[in-house]
Amino acid sequence: MCGAPKQGQKLPAGVDVEKETVLLGTVSDAAGAPVAGAFVRLLDSTGEFTAEVVASATGDFRFFAAPGTWTLRALSSVGNGNVTVSPDGPGVHEHNITVAK
């Protein structure tokens, strides 16, 4: 069982989005319904595992990362999906993931 913390869209107090690069979004199925409990992985530009969180009851996830190229990969019983993102600096960068079998 993974010990990754549950996530939500509300940023913690004290997060300075002028200095932090935040990757967030929602995992959903092909019909657009949120996928609760999906494991969302952050992979670096070479495909190496960096971090993992569990999507909230509303499918939300969040990572703090550095600018660069990342892959967000969602794994769930509903299916899997991924999206490649390239935040170029600090701020909130929203990227949703659709999963399918």
UniProtKB/TrEMBL annotation:
Keywords: Isopeptide bond, Ubl conjugation. Gene3D superfamilies: Carboxypeptidase-like, regulatory domain. Pfam families: DUF1416. It comes from the Bacteria. InterPro entries: CarboxyPept-like_regulatory, DUF1416. This is DUF1416 domain-containing protein. It comes from Gordonia pseudamarae.
